[in-house]
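User: Fold this, then the next.

Assistant: Folding the first:
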Amino acid sequence: MPELPEVDALAAFLRDRAVGLTMADVELASFSVLKTFDPPVTALAGLQVTGVTRHGKFLDLDVDGLHLVVHLAKAGWLRWSDSFGDKRLKMGNGPLTARVRLDAGDGPSVGFDLTEAGTRKGLAMYVVRDPGDVPGIAALGPDALDPDLDLASLLAGRRMQVKRFLRDQTILSGIGNAYSDEILHTARLSPFAIAADLDDDAVERLDAAVRSVLTEALEEATGRPAADLKDDKRTRMRVHGRTGQTCPVCGDTVAEVTFSDSSLQYCPTCQTGGQRLKDRSTSKFLK
């Protein structure tokens, strides 16, 4: 799933390429991808892209005061093209969900495709007058890289596992499954430690890890072409997606907990005192 660093980098990528161009057309290949009807998507045609920003994990293209907002969900991605042909998308075009055609002055030949792998479809597109009209944006908590973020206050009183705390966009926005694994590994915390029970030292480690992991990832992602961002992210992971491999910090074997639709990875030595967490159906989680 694209998270704060990748979505921020995609926003910067689009600012370099799309700002100043005219919105020519938005073609849909999936009925379910467009979540709004007023204003209609056709209202964007002929307007100029004036800015691109990020809200949590949402991309926001300002189109002369209207906003084309995209959430890439778990398996979505954005693919830029400098040479679109004239053939229009058809409904049910495989992983393609939408195409945004832009006109640089010589016709609608550039722009980007939105794609989504797998059978579970979550990619969403909105056309709104204000980004706050998107329910997911309206509900966002503070940005994980907000310099004024007070993580200790957010943690206080939360009887929830710290892994879920980090991923809850209404509490803290921008962090998903991958970077929460990386942050907890850096902070040396069990994914299932209870947020409200963390002592001062653990809170300080977590706060430092949130900032260092995301800042480093953002620096690595910034300036990279959109096509390179996913592979670059994978190569930087130390525990996430590396089940069975060696922890680069202590040399232990990275372990995994699997759920019905996702999984997490962690290092037993670095994070859980050498104990292995087991599946919910067979054992209680380590607190």
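Now the next one, as you asked:
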Amino acid sequence: MPVTDITKDFDARTLVITAEFAAPVERVWALYEDPRQLEQVWGPPQYPATFVDHDLRPGTRSTYYMTSPEGEKFAGYWDIAEVAAPQRFTFSDGFAHADLTPNSSLPVSANVYVLEATATGTRATYTSTFATAEGLQTVLDMGVEEGSKAAINQIDGYLAAH
């Protein structure tokens, strides 16, 4: 399984997920750059994602929704801040209403995704920082740890098949 570590630090208000992929950095980067590939692995398998807008460039907003097995849609957005292809990108990740506008009643996280070459492929470090420990707890209570792990663990299989 790609996910090798999950660390929650309430003092630092962070959730850090580390994963190892059996593919080169450029291939993993290409997955995050292409909305059609990204939607194959962004949500957990039972909550597939659909990216409405996605352009991995600073100053853009990506919008998406995940669909539950019952057909309920859960929307979100990324405000892309920095892109240093193919090693790193930063973005704010928030929840959205059905019309894809930000839902300010739920926490927003500042995210740094880093891809590093290893002898066997790529190490990815996904760091999410919240404004408050309560915000981190809110998303943990919503299942973000389990959902993220399930989503990330799909990446090796997808990359091997495509």
